[in-house]
Amino acid sequence: MVEVEKVLKNTVKKGKVKIGAKQTKQAVNSGSAQLIVISSNCPYKIEISDLAKEKKIPIYYSDSNSINLGYTCGKSFAVSVFAVIDDGGNKILNLIKNK
Description:
The chain has 99 residues and is α+β, with helices and mostly antiparallel strands. Helices cover 46% and strands 17% of the residues. The protein has a single domain, classed as CATH 3.30.1330.30. It has a four-stranded mixed sheet, with helices on both faces. The N and C termini lie close together (9 Å).
């Protein structure tokens, strides 16, 4: 768990992500999302999950709530969902697939 959180933080810092439900949906629809990260209390969990599965985009369901996920991402606000566009060399997809 700690390793995943560390990689998520580095991905947000060094890579390219789209934070929030609206931007995540746009990234999924455009095909630019490599991975979707969803907090445990995301109000759009089902809608975004279905959309990502339809487009065959991997999903990581975080055990953290949106406040803790925001903190993990180095943000001073709650983050319920985000799309990873570029992992910044963190190989996050390999780590998530091994979980």
